[in-house]
Amino acid sequence: MERETERMTDAAAAGTTEQAAKGTTERPDGLVNVAIIGVGNIGSAHARATGSGRIAGMRLGALCDIDPRKRETLSGLYPGVPVFASAEELFAAVNAGKLSVDAVIIATPHRFHAAIGMQAVEAGLHVLSEKPADVELKKAVELARTASASGKLYGIMFNQRTDPVYARAREIIKSGELGAFKRSSWVITNWYRTQAYYDSGDWRATWNGEGGGVLLNQAPHNIDLWLWMLGMPESVLAFCHEGKYHRIDVEDEATIYAEFPGGGTGVFVTSTGEAPGLNRLEMAFENGRLIIENGVLSVLRLGVPERRFCFECQDCYALPPLSEERFSARETRDGHELILEDFASAVTNGTELLSPGSAGVNELAFSNACYLSSWTGERVILPLSDNDCRRFSSILEEKRNSEAKRNCPGKDPKDPANAAYSERWKTRW
Ligand SMILES: NC(=O)c1ccc[n+]([C@@H]2O[C@H](COP(=O)([O-])OP(=O)(O)OC[C@H]3O[C@@H](n4cnc5c(N)ncnc54)[C@H](O)[C@@H]3O)[C@@H](O)[C@H]2O)c1
Description:
Strand content: 15-25%
Shape: globular
CATH topology of the largest domain: Rossmann fold
CATH architecture of the largest domain: 3-Layer(aba) Sandwich
Mean pLDDT: 92
Largest sheet: 9 strands, mixed
Number of domains: 2
Number of strands: 15
CATH class of the largest domain: Alpha Beta
Distance between the termini: 43 Å
Order of helices and strands: HEHEHEHEHEHEHEHHEEEEEEHEHHEH
Bound molecules: nicotinamide-adenine-dinucleotide
CATH superfamily of the largest domain: NAD(P)-binding Rossmann-like Domain
Structural class: alpha/beta
């Protein structure tokens, strides 16, 4: 049975190509011209950021949304910027030489991310996709492979990667000074959402429209950070509770037990139904512990490695000597804007992407494995096998087919005129 290893390796390789790909921009102003596809809550904030000229190295070149009212508002807000009614129409204009853009930012509902990304790469464009990479791993893997083979950049909007606290924790772990990883627990339950949120769009919180709940929409940021710091586990056992706190079909609470190569273990708990929620990450290593809570990273370093102390110390109740350092720093810019600038720099100067598409692929591999585990009651091995990818898709299809139509008021997405990055999309302590 062909295992996902090859594909994941491809995705990791995509990261390398992503970094190697040099800019295609030969514009006099040197700016990366982007088309934004899907101009709802987050897409309209990206439009305002790029359209206002505050994103270094990037400018707004086109907009696209399937909602006619949205297009009308956008035409008024961004005169001179062409507005398209579908991704197909936009790519047809690119292919016909009628529209000149370098990259797309995809901010539609998740299930279109990889398919639109594929069309973009085929039209010779770089891709920056909103998270998650897609609903189904196989589609995201295909995009990563195609982008890599075409020498096009594929980035993902994991904007919390720019948070200095997580970046510092990762730096310490990667330096090796804390030794082997033992155990981690991340309780990230402050993704609180009201019923009004779930009712704000008819694609939300349905198997057909969204394809998942808190694991697919809110927690991908934290899952990505967890994997970025600790690497990919080799198995997961997950418990997802569907519609526990809201009138929704998908899960609003998940508890995951993960086993990492080398014997480390982890528990990841997330919810949109707890108030007040919590954001507490602990990571224990042979030579100490990292704790991140309330925006502060505590670095607890042991004077003697615990494994040595355990077998050399003759005092039954002694503890190894300990020192503590605290680190905190607030982001000076919005993380979304930093990822946009990072992407522009990668396109123009060939710099390394902070958040490459391969991170989106890995994050989705983890969440697909968790869904499969919860749906079947089985411990699921990573990398996901082709057979497990098929089982995931087939159970998802069953859920889609048996889902009753949701009676959803379907409020309009955010008015593009009032677009700003919401505090709710940033790291919350
Ligand atoms: N990185 C972040 O902090 C962050 C924050 C919010 C949302 N997101 C992600 O962004 C995506 C969009 O979320 P949202 O809250 O903005 O949703 P939304 O419903 O507010 O906006 C989606 C927009 O896409 C349009 N659309 C739908 N299908 C389309 C298609 N096929 N082609 C073109 N346009 C299409 C809709 O008309 C709508 O305007 C989701 O994947 C979500 O996970 C990321």
